[in-house]
Structure formats: C-alpha cells, structure tokens
C-alpha cells in the first residue's frame, strides 16, 4: 500500500482476527500549494486459512507498507476408530 505521504508513526494497523484495518492520518502541513491534511482508512478481510497472531508490517523508505500474515498450520489427519457392531 502506498503511504508515502505518511510517516510510520502516523500509521495505525489493527486487527479483530477477521479483518485488518489500516488508518493513516497527518495533521495540517504546508506544501507548495498551501496547507494540506490527509487521512486514509482501508479495511481488508482476512482469509480464513491465516493465523491472525502472525500479522506483521513493514514500511520501506519510499513509503510502501507491506503486510504479512502466515497460513495456519495444517492439522494432521486424526484417526478415528469406528467400532464394528454385530447384529
């Protein structure tokens, strides 16, 4: 996600285990044309097969935010014993 207008401390990422919310906001700043303030919010639904506790983020020097999340570990197939009944 391109957030080059924001500093890392102006970006807040939250998760409720079903979605990730990214909010970036900076107060009024002066630029070449006057004053500007910006705010953006993006909400992304998490796939069901990911581990919400593994979410991490990085922002590079160009302002690109990367979100990483790992897939849930596959459960080993469980063997179930099925009794045989005689009638």
From TrEMBL:
Signal peptide location: none
InterPro entries: A-crystallin/Hsp20_dom, Alpha-crystallin/sHSP_animal, HSP20-like_chaperone
Highest taxon, organism lineage: Eukaryota
Pfam family membership, one: HSP20
Molecular functions (GO terms): unfolded protein binding
Gene Ontology BP term (one): protein refolding
Classification via PROSITE patterns: SHSP
CDD domains: metazoan_ACD (cd06526)
One GO cellular component term noted in the UniProt record for this chain: nucleus
Record's keyword terms, sorted: Stress response
Domain SHSP: 1-87
PANTHER family on file: HEAT SHOCK PROTEIN 22-RELATED, HEAT SHOCK PROTEIN HSP-12.2-RELATED
Family: Belongs to the small heat shock protein (HSP20) family.
Name the UniProt record assigns to this protein: SHSP domain-containing protein
Organism of origin: Biomphalaria glabrata (Bloodfluke planorb)
